């Protein structure tokens, strides 16, 4: 099943995504399995929102062996996690706005995202598997000059629109057996085996929940093997086969509309 | 006015806190000024929740000149912000649970917290002032061994119960003219001028909103000048005069109930 959130009549509504239409739902499938269909809209032209606004937004770095070799970093000995901020989220087809002040490398990072569906603490690997409600696609847009200048990732990775996520949550896919592809203006710029990770999402969930309660709607962004530069005027697509394509235009601040 | 969130009848309810009673409200004063009183409960024995669950949880470090001198760090040249995670929040009187694995220094950090009441971007200093709905008190509990071992603050500062906040949001106080006091078992362990900061909350809001939209309910924890160790069996109070006293017992994991 594919679940999305769209803007309909000025509010955020959950939907079940079909080939041509989206069935609008009475509530969140993350909160209750008893959701009713309250209407239908065509999929074409839908106003896609981030498929979930997480209580906690976890993000993993340094998680692909080939990326680590490329940047000359040692392979981490244990799964460690950081955070991103909800203000930066934006949906499928919404613009990534490059701040006017940003100089230097401005890059897309194609990532697999696990969406948590249960409250869990002290999870086993099996419980971690069962707790993943579904999978979506993220683009961890990064301004490298700020990333190197600042003490934290606050503006380099969390400026408004720097975290496109979507288009939907796919519940029926073996996410770690897929291929991640990054395209700019239709041209492939990176392609890697989605599951070729140092630690997989379940390893992270086991480690996190030793100390932390995870909740329905929490997201875990899994890092990227390869990145590529993007510029205003580009359209950047992140595709994970079996999940979907997250597509966003890039605009320069001041030229948003 | 003092606004709190309490657990009543199994759900989170906003309340207006008086000397003896709490008036229960029909909605969040952060979302609408039109809230009705739907009941009253005695203040004594109330089950206090964190006064807000923020869309984004901002936290400032290295913000008191005397603290910087003490740890031998240079004074920051610009306001930079980090993040904490909502799972770690807990309310007034709820226990801080020290994980069984934690060794080394386990410390309380008494902090002023600004609660944002408006959506704002590109704020002036005056708009930043107007956008603060009120003030509360935070305790940025930290496990130093983890803080030094880990790449991020994920478990050192974000394990469950490590972020007590409360007891309420005070809307009518000149927060920067107050005194912050940290007490353990009734004994004063730190006391400092709340407003003796390198950058004040409004400086941070101006800087953050250059790149980031802040939203109602976002919180900004302002850092601490002094800290002190805490141990299971202790009761730790953070008082900011004119706002309130946030009091939490400390328990060892496994002895929570």
Comma- or semicolon-separated keywords:
homodimer; 257 residues; mainly beta; Fumarylacetoacetate hydrolase, domain 2; 12-stranded mixed sheet; 5-stranded mixed sheet; 4 helices; 38% strand; globular
Q: Could you walk me through the main structural features you see in this protein, from its secondary elements to its overall organization?
A:
The structure is a homodimer. In chain A, strands 1, 2, 3, 4, 5, 6, 7, 8, 11, 12, 14 and 17 form a twelve-stranded mixed beta sheet that branches. In chain A, strands 9-20-19-15-16 form a five-stranded mixed beta sheet, with no helix packed on it. The mean pLDDT of chain A is about 95. With about 260 residues, chain A is mostly beta strands. Chain A is built from four helices and 20 strands. The interface of A and B includes residues 53, 80, 151, 152 and 158 of A.
What's the CATH H-level superfamily name of the largest domain in chain A? Fumarylacetoacetase-like, C-terminal domain
Largest sheet of chain A: 12 strands, mixed
Determine the strand fraction of chain A and express it as a percent band: 35-45%
Shape of chain A: globular
Helix/strand/pairing category of chain A: mainly beta
- Are there runs of chain A of 5+ residues with pLDDT below 50, and where? none
Distance between the termini of chain A: 33 Å
Helix count, DSSP H or I runs of 4 or more residues of chain A: 4
CATH class of the largest domain in chain A: Alpha Beta
